[in-house]
Design goal:
The relative contact order is 0.15. By secondary structure, this protein is an alpha/beta fold. Helix 13 runs parallel beside helix 15. It is globular, with a radius of gyration of 22 Å. The chain is built from 15 helices and 15 strands. The structure holds pyridoxal-5'-phosphate (PLP). The site of pyridoxal-5'-phosphate has 16 residues, from helix 5.
């Protein structure tokens, strides 16, 4: 062997060239909102891992729930009429908390699979009811829906397609709802929303409404840069979908379980999706589990249809895994007991206010945005959307934040954050202080870049 790799791990979403020069940050332990590296440095984890560790990194009750379940029944499947109590109880707990039209739950192990499942169920539903031409799915520019073939196709981000022969041919992308970036001069948020609804309708008419199966959206976009929809957005979009019989899929993989200050992002906009997908915070990220919730109407079509055409041949070995389900169930109980959604409203309001005070109107700051405990600080060379830096300012800012022992994520010229839902005001103060110091260092870096 000539070329012995430093690590055998292929790191997802990582520049594999630069990781050879800059070794990965290896984490060893966690406590509350903090994680500690192998070297003993403690970081405030303001991304909650990957938007998931809602209860922080040391929730003993989740460890206990996992231990109890692994001792009692470490694995059993729910295929072919088998079941177990944790899957059954978790499904009930989700239905009890979901928008009231959603009555049935399909379990997977990741957000990507939950979305992949949503699309397959839409196709199955349409085929069973004779709408065999309805195959196309509309998603949005800047949206993120996962990494499997269809989920990656749904993403409105070029890096998810380039070199992978994606998107799949049945996917269409409509405009991003980012008002700061795409609103035109003198346009109000409501006018922008109406313009996007018109352009969606034009797309549907151009494709043929009878060919469009579903529209998928994150209530608040996450990985695309934390984009809160403009005023009136869903009120303008949903009637267009209903007019043409197009199903609505709410991707709540990030928004679900209180992240936005409402239990579901759908609640923010009075959405009644036909399908809702959730994951990540369902188990505080402690176990890999996700869910696709559907209406009774879809479920009844499958029930009738599977009699005619054979069983619902879809599922994963670990669908509804008992240990994952037990941990998720305990997580959901803790959300209720601690009234975490209310806590997010308070802590989130404080985070948004403090971010505005610290960054709004500052050099290179274009926009400070967010809702609940989801936020972004957007940089731009002239504070307007019309220009971008030669290098990702978000990557620079997030590296500078790391120097301050704060973990946030760089997305193009923005940094985004989604701290654990248990974060307290003093910890938000620490976060803001660290980001303010990182911003000063970032300014110097950006001035140098602009001078070159
Ligand atoms: C909105 C959204 N949907 C889907 C996914 C994919 O989830 P996973 O990485 O668990 O497959 C993500 C992941 O970040 C996400 O943010």
């Amino acid at each position: 062997m000539t070329n012995i790799p430093e690590t055998a791990v292929i790191h997802p979403f990582t520049n594999l060239e630069s990781i050879r020069v800059r070794p990965p940050l290896i984490m060893k332990s966690g406590n509350g909102v903090f994680v500690t590296s192998k070297e003993g440095d403690e970081y405030l984890e303001a991304m909650a891992g990957l938007w998931c560790v809602s209860l922080g990194f040391s929730e003993g009750r989740l460890a206990e729930a996992a231990y109890q379940q692994i001792t009692e029944l470490p694995f059993y499947h729910i295929f072919m009429s088998s079941s177990h109590t944790p899957a059954d109880q978790l499904a009930r707990a989700l239905v009890d908390r979901a928008p009231s039209n959603l009555t049935r739950v399909f379990f997977s192990t990741s957000g990507s699979e939950a979305n992949e499942t949503a699309i397959k169920l839409v196709w199955k539903y349409n085929n069973l009811r004779g709408e065999t031409n309805r195959k196309k799915i509309i998603s949005r520019q800047d949206g993120y829906h996962g990494s499997t073939t269809i989920a990656a196709s749904l993403c409105g981000l070029d890096n998810m397609h380039d070199g992978f022969d994606l998107p799949a041919a049945i996917i269409r992308h409509t405009s991003s709802p980012h008002f700061w970036r795409y609103g035109v001069q003198a346009e109000t948020e409501e006018e922008f929303s109406n313009r996007l609804a018109c352009s969606l309708e034009k797309l549907i008419l151009a494709e043929g409404p009878e060919t469009i199966a579903a529209f998928i959206a994150e209530p608040v976009m996450g990985a695309g840069g934390v984009v809160v929809p403009p005023k009136g957005y869903f009120d303008a979009i949903v009637p267009v979908l209903r007019k043409y019989g197009i199903l609505l899929i709410a991707d709540e993989i990030i928004c679900g379980f209180g992240r936005t200050g409402e239990y579901w992002g759908s609640n923010l906009y009075n959405l009644r999706p036909d399908i809702l997908t959730c994951g990540k915070q369902i188990s505080s990220g402690y176990q890999p589990i996700s869910a696709t919730l559907v209406t009774e109407e879809l479920y009844q079509a499958f029930t009738e249809g599977t009699g005619r055409v054979g069983g619902l041949s879809h599922g994963f070995t670990h669908s509804g895994h008992p240990v994952c389900a037990a941990v998720a169930l305990e997580t959901i109980k803790i959300y209720d007991e601690r009234n975490l959604v209310k806590h997010v409203k308070d802590a989130g309001g404080y985070l948004q206010d403090e971010l505005h005070k610290a960054f709004r109107g500052k050099d290179f700051v274009g926009e400070v945005r967010g809702i609940g405990l989801l936020a972004a600080v957007q940089l731009s060379p002239d504070s307007t959307p019309s220009s971008t830096f030669k290098q990702s300012a978000g990557a620079i800012f997030s590296r500078r934040a790391l120097d301050e022992k704060i973990i946030v994520r760089g997305v193009k010229d923005a940094i985004v954050m989604s701290p654990p839902l248990i974060i307290e005001r003093e910890q938000i103060d620490t976060l803001i202080k660290g980001l303010a110091a990182a911003y000063e260092a970032t300014l110097r870096d950006l001035e140098k870049i602009l001078a070159d």
